[in-house]
TrEMBL record:
InterPro entries: Cyt_c_oxidase_suVIIB, Cyt_c_oxidase_suVIIB_dom_sf. It is found in: Mitochondrion inner membrane. One of its GO terms (cellular component) is respiratory chain complex IV. The keyword Nucleus does not apply. It is a single-pass membrane protein. It comes from the Eukaryota. This is Cytochrome c oxidase subunit 7B, mitochondrial.
Amino acid sequence: MFPVARAAQSLVARGIQHTAVRQAHRKHQPTFHDKYGAMVLLGGATMFTAVWGYVFTQLKIEWGFSPVGRITPK
C-alpha cells in the first residue's frame, strides 16, 4: 500500500474510532420517536383502517372496472 494511502486510511480509521468512543460515553436520552413512535404508528394505522373501512362500507359507491363515468355516488 502506498504511504499516502496508508496515512489517509489510518486518519479515517482514527476519526471513526474517536467518534465511536465519544458516542459510547454519552448518555442516551430517549427522543420523541423512542417514546411515542409505536403509538403514533398504531394510531395512524387505526385511522387509515377506520377511514377506508367507512369509505368501502358506507358511501354506497358503485365500483366498475373503468372509472370513467362509472363511479357515481348515490
